[in-house]
Amino acid sequence: TDSTQPCKDSVFFRDGVRRIDFVLSYVDDKDGERKQERRKVYEANLEKVGLELETEDKSESEDGKTYFVKVHAPWEVLATYADVLKIKVPFKVNDIPDNSEMPMNWLSTPFRLPEHIMHPEPDFFTAPFNKSKSDFFLIDDKDTFFPPSTRNRIVYYILSRCSYFRDECADKDKKGIKRLLNNGTYTAAFPLHDSRYWTRSRDDKCESERYNLYKHWARFLCFFKEQPLNLVRKYYGEKIGIYFAWLGFYTEMLLFAAVVGTICFIYGFLTYDDNQWSKEICSEKIGGNIVMCPLCDKKCSYWKLNTTCNSSWQSHLFDNVGTVFFAIFMGIWVTLFLEFWKRRQARLEYEWDLVDFEEEQQQLQLRPEYETKCTNRKMNRITQEMEPYLPITSKCARTCLSGATVLLWISLIIACIIGVIAYRLAVYAAFASIMKDSPTTHLEVVGPYITPQLATSVTASCINFVIIMILNLMYERVAIWITDMEIPKTHLEYENKLTVKMFLFQFVNYYSSCFYVAFFKGKFVGYPGKYAYMFGWSTLRNEECDPGGCLIELTTQLVIVMTGKQVWGNIQEALVPWLMNWWGSRKARNHPESLYSRWEQDHDLQGFGQLGLFYEYLEMVIQFGFITLFVASFPLAPLLALINNIIEVRVDAWKLTTQFRRPVAAKAHSIGAWEEILNGMAVLSVVTNAFIVAFTSDMIPRLVYMYAYQPEMNMKGYINNSLSVFNISDFLTDSRPDDDENPAWYRDYRYPPGHEKQYSHTMQFWHILAAKLAFIIIMEHVVFVVKFLVAWLIPDVPSDVRARVKRERYLVQEYLHNYEVEKLKIQLSQNSNECNCTPMIYPSLSKHEVLSECL
């Protein structure tokens, strides 16, 4: 490009030499004298620090009103702050043999990416940069020694601490780009993408890594390819890199759970014809002759057992022996996932130079909001400087108000769940009233596959999902508001507080309906003549489970909520930023590409906020809860999660590469607080799945019947055995149906009328209860023992990584020592020549002693 007419789609200043490391934008409005003064002082202070600025006038911008200030960090500034931030840089090519190649590596060839994409730079030994020893490091070209991600991280560090007040001693709080963005002095601050995502940069000096990421990572057609994590880390920084590493590893591990879950589902399908209890239910001689008690008072009619034939067969697909095996398998799988992730994380820490990384600096950096709102000051014991602080009384009051707000919203969720339960009871009664005149042998509404129970369950689940999404949208704002009200000291503390609030709320919001169906529905029904009612209201009799069990309803609830959340989440993630960018850049589409500058293109994109990854983690952790807490009810849940995550990886990559400004590179050596949340859910999942198999599934009653009450060890007669008889003359007047059938049956283990203990529980009931409790204890202990054994056997850090870390530390010390010795030799030689003293004059003295004599 001609030097007088530089290409505007460039990441360099007008001279084509100095790289743009950051861009600030602002609009010069009419009432902006104070803002103009702040900008003037702030930019002058940036130049005092050593940064170089270049301003694009508003007449050059496509909207005619936005100014762009381009920021460049010269070598002296980069070297100084790399020393301050202890940024690790290469000093020698890594010569430790890499023996990590797997056998039969050729099998993975179709899934691999080109080597220059997977490993965009050689592996080096690294050490914290020291400006005084710059010749120790491998500096071939000072302009390219620090990669763009490191450069924008250093510049952002300066921008965050530079004052915009003339007399810095007068008010130390008036500093930082965050506050200038909050008060509208600047409209945006961002580092530049290095090129358009769909084509390489026309500048040969530009890396075009964004284009490579889009081509090899963000396109959906690459879904079966490995992720170029090293390139992601190089371009976006370690914090984003570690998220995609975790998401990719989680997706890989889901493949094993999905395969086993699918096999368990296929087992249920293949044993379809061996389902003896369903045959008895569907039989005209058995199920057709059993008249069941009404499922609601007055309006409901008697019904025959064989009307639930279809739901019984459907329930068998998920409620079989494979369910128990899969519940145990998932308890072990979640442990393997977490332990292998620790190993993967340790390997990434070594490969990405994060072994000695600590977040102390982040913890010491105060949030601008904290500095603004806290007027009191005290001495910081670490920095030995006066800093703002929040009095303990104010802190306690704010914490109590925050906790009360969280409890209020959780109570609101529970109230909504109770409302949905009341809806289920009322709708079922309405269905029964409509079909009251139908024959008792045919209770279906639309066809042979839709019963009142199924219709009620599906509509209630859909309504519950809509309520969940509305409450979730409202609570996001409330959680941010109450977290802001608490005035956390650092960004790390802010994110942890928000994480706890959001996860606690979403845990209750998404899982409460599943917990109700799994552990409460059908457990507190009572029996004919003495039914239990919600809040004592005679119109709302507690729900009973389907004769096939409540497991099929839990499956329906889980599928609707989990699938609905995933589909809606992916649509929202992809569509919303695309529409906003389309609307924001609609004017620019009328200009030639050569006039649409790189900084304007990125300015029109969406900003990737500091909480961008927070919402990504939250979405995946909620999904993790669905596939672990309730997986015993739906073995295909890991398969649905796997399909979603394959899409999720590419959607996240696509929107980050094409729809968002380039985030400021940040370091992180782990997934943070989310790891503890995952560990907690892993432990809870063992308990919930044990209870689902014991109390929601019919597995234990069947096994007790087969081994304790059936001499032939088969399931013949199970249906008659699992039902009890009731004399309709014992119905209360308010609950007695209009038509009479005598006798009627109900699902329970109670003595028949006329027995001395009529309607009290039989001994078989207590045997089954004991078997359920024994199963829970045995399953939990077996799984926990295996979990702890697996955790103990699998070290968190692979032995080869531990050895390589020790080896690298040793070599770093050795090379530094040799460097110091060589430097001292040169110094000694120069000093010896200057004072005409040589070791030959003092043959008995060492070089150090010779130098002393000369001095």
Automatic annotation (TrEMBL):
Cellular component annotations (GO), alphabetically ordered: plasma membrane
Lineage: Eukaryota, Metazoa, Chordata, Craniata, Vertebrata
InterPro entries to which the protein is assigned, alphabetical: Anoct_dimer, Anoctamin, Anoctamin_TM
Keywords: Cell membrane, Glycoprotein, Membrane, Transmembrane, Transmembrane helix
Domain (Anoctamin dimerisation): residue spans on this chain: 12-229
Transmembrane intervals: 243-270, 321-341, 406-434, 454-475, 624-647, 677-696, 773-794
A GO term, aspect molecular function: protein dimerization activity
Protein name from the UniProt record: Anoctamin
UniProt topology in membrane: Multi-pass membrane protein
Residue intervals of the Anoctamin transmembrane domain: 232-808
Signal sequence, start to end: none
PANTHER family, per the entry: ANOCTAMIN, ANOCTAMIN-5
Family per record: Belongs to the anoctamin family.
Cellular compartment(s): Cell membrane; Membrane
